[in-house]
């Protein structure tokens, strides 16, 4: 089997778990060793179910497998949709020994994971991410949750999965816009921690955009390895883990302004990383050339490099003040000390922040 | 200060916390050492707020204290009411360094605790229980959650408080029916683990029902000590902790049948413990005299000794099958090996269970 996939481990003591990465794993990889009870509940959505549900079910031989199929989209990442998972679990009489399985993108993973964290005060779950974004980011690390009208991911839990199964073949059905959104997080790992990976991405961006399997597998492996390392060092975001939020404070403001789901998370993060780079340059940490280099890579990944038309500096400030990365009123941001080395700081000058908005925002 | 209160500790390693028990602690005891940030959000209800909110606020000198006031009652222990806590936190811009404070009975404690477990993936909280039931039971041990139409406490988390403040004076405003409901859980500790305490309760039941301060303080201290010991041995209910559910599987069925809030939790547990005692006698574990002794004490505490009129054996079986104490389809029950010694078992014979229902239930 070991030539079929590459394996990583997220090292968290007794909560450690493996990540399997390979082609055509769905339907052929036996995941039942990661299920302690007799019941499995697969949580998926209307888009993914017709493509992969049957193959996902085949990963759990000998188990009783039920399904909850949710509507597709970030705008359904709310309590009402979450509650339909609880409805399904209770109607099918799933006990506290059940295992939940998230089959889909980041929204499904966040919701199924949060449902697992809360159902009967916590049951195990498994991640089967089917989008590039969820494969390289949200399926690893145990962050789960739903949105609130006043802020993204404001309600949630840290809840680590038992295992993560990444089938690179599932990316072949992914819309190009979602491939680009995933590439934003891939680029992020290069920017925050791995200059060599960033150089590799500059060489292979065209292969990634055109979904070449070998390039995808390598990018996913290196992204997951980077994330697994950071999560192992700082599971509950006491410090280091916050660098994973490069571009996210700006990005969340964009997503909220645009209305959840109108800008994809990765698209907003892509633009957010450019704003963070701009601020880093204004603070004298990176050069103008570095900013241009990052901007080129973002554009080659097919990502937007500007916030939504009409979004003003005031919009950003209002929305960023309720972002949960704020501690006791200070605006904490992830900036680049150099390309490949991120830092969390609350020392960015208000003038340079205003200048960043001025350069990226509409004036009205 | 130490002559003003008695102190217990719940020993959970880095999550250990103190319980303070005494008269007139509200408004005089400084709880700010248990608040790490600058913000405090007190969650209370419409009944408790006019009585104790001002005094509770005075426990947090130097902190910014906001309030969310919920409607009063078990029927509001749902997502909609929980969400109004999140609304308040986000509207008042509480960060992930805020501390929630539960001021009220078990419903408030469960909801404020669950809100703390989920808000921004977890913030600290403090319990100030104002009912006897919450003082001796739900405020200690970290179980939090809300109800689902298909089952009680089906959605929740384990989340330990930073501290518990028990002011025995707050019981003087408690309706007699709620005093009785609290006494059900007090009696439970004697039944499951402390024969000496049970004998003490038989001697002092009249003093407790008439709210004599010294008797109340002693009963609360011994109850909390018993619960703290059990929780320290088994925080997440892997085994021993389940004995705390004596009477609860029957009791939850009664509560669900009656409609949440029509029977008080403690009332249902009181009758549930009598049903568990009956089944224990039928299984040959305790004597008929033991059953009569327990029945007398339940009646002296002012508690019902029968399920609701009209509730049948079928009602019980249907509702108990979705109780979350079931693991992989087996009906697990807490029974009495002897008075003062409980055991969790899935071996009770179906015939004796049927006989128990026949003796307690209406025939229709």
UniProtKB/TrEMBL annotation, chains A, B:
Biological process annotations from GO: amino acid biosynthetic process; aromatic amino acid family biosynthetic process; chorismate biosynthetic process
Annotated ranges, domain 3-dehydroquinate synthase C-terminal: 182-326
Localization in the cell: Cytoplasm
GO MF term set: 3-dehydroquinate synthase activity; metal ion binding; nucleotide binding
Catalysed reaction equations from the record: 7-phospho-2-dehydro-3-deoxy-D-arabino-heptonate = 3-dehydroquinate + phosphate
Residues binding Zn(2+): 185, 248, 265
EC number: 4.2.3.4
Keyword Amino-acid biosynthesis: yes
Keyword Amino-acid biosynthesis appears in the UniProt entry: yes
Keywords for this protein: Amino-acid biosynthesis, Aromatic amino acid biosynthesis, Cobalt, Cytoplasm, Lyase, Metal-binding, NAD, Nucleotide-binding, Zinc
List of residues binding NAD(+): 72-77, 106-110, 130-131, 143, 152
Gene3D superfamilies registered for this protein in UniProt: 3.40.50.1970, Dehydroquinate synthase-like - alpha domain
InterPro entries to which the protein is assigned, alphabetical: Dehydroquinate_synthase (IPR050071), DHQ_synth_AroB (IPR016037), DHQ_synth_fam (IPR030963), DHQS/DOIS_N (IPR030960), DHQS_C (IPR056179)
Cofactor(s) needed: NAD(+); Co(2+); Zn(2+)
Residue span, 3-dehydroquinate synthase N-terminal domain: 68-180
Pathway participation: Metabolic intermediate biosynthesis; chorismate biosynthesis; chorismate from D-erythrose 4-phosphate and phosphoenolpyruvate: step 2/7
Note on how the cofactor is bound: Binds 1 divalent metal cation per subunit. Can use either Co(2+) or Zn(2+).
NCBIfam families: aroB (TIGR01357)
Function in brief: Catalyzes the conversion of 3-deoxy-D-arabino-heptulosonate 7-phosphate (DAHP) to dehydroquinate (DHQ).
Family assignment from sequence similarity: Belongs to the sugar phosphate cyclases superfamily. Dehydroquinate synthase family.
Protein name: 3-dehydroquinate synthase
Record organism: Marinobacter maroccanus
């Amino acid at each position: 089997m070991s030539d079929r996939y590459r394996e990583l481990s997220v090292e968290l003591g007794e909560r450690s778990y493996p990540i399997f990465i390979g082609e055509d794993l769905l339907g052929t990889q036996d995941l039942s060793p990661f299920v302690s009870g007799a019941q499995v509940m697969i949580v998926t959505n209307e888009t993914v179910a017709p493509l992969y549900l049957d193959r996902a079910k085949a990963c759990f031989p000998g188990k009783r497998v039920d399904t909850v199929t949710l509507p597709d989209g970030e705008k359904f990442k709310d309590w009402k949709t979450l509650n339909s998972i609880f409805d399904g679990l209770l109607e099918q009489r799933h006990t506290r020994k059940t295992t939940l399985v998230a089959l889909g993108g980041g929204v499904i993973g966040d919701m199924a994971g949060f449902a697992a964290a809360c159902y009967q005060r916590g049951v195990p779950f498994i991640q089967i991410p089917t989008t590039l974004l969820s494969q390289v980011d949200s399926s690893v690390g145990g962050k789960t949750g739903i949105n609130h009208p006043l802020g993204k991911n404001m309600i949630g839990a840290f809840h680590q999965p038992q295992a993560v199964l990444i089938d690179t073949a599932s990316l072949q059905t992914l819309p190009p816009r979602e491939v680009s959104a995933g590439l934003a997080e891939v680029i992020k790992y290069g920017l925050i921690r791995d200059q060599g990976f960033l150089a590799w991405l500059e060489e292979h961006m065209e292969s990634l955009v055109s979904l070449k399997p070998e390039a995808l597998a390598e990018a996913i492996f290196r992204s997951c390895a980077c994330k697994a390392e950071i999560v192992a060092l700082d599971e509950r975001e006491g410090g280091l883990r916050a660098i994973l939020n490069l571009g996210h404070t700006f990005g969340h403001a964009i997503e909220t302004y645009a209305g959840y789901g109108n800008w994809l998370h990765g698209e907003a993060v892509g633009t957010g990383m450019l704003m963070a780079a701009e601020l880093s340059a204004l603070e004298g940490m990176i050069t103008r050339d570095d900013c241009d280099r990052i901007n080129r890579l973002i554009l080659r990944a097919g990502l937007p490099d500007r916030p939504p038309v009409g979004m003003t500096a005031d919009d950003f400030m209002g929305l960023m003040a309720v972002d949960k990365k704020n501690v006791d009123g200070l605006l904490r941001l992830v900036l680049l000390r150099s390309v490949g080395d991120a830092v969390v700081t609350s020392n960015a000058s208000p003038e340079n922040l205003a200048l960043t908005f001025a350069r990226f925002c509409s004036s009205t």
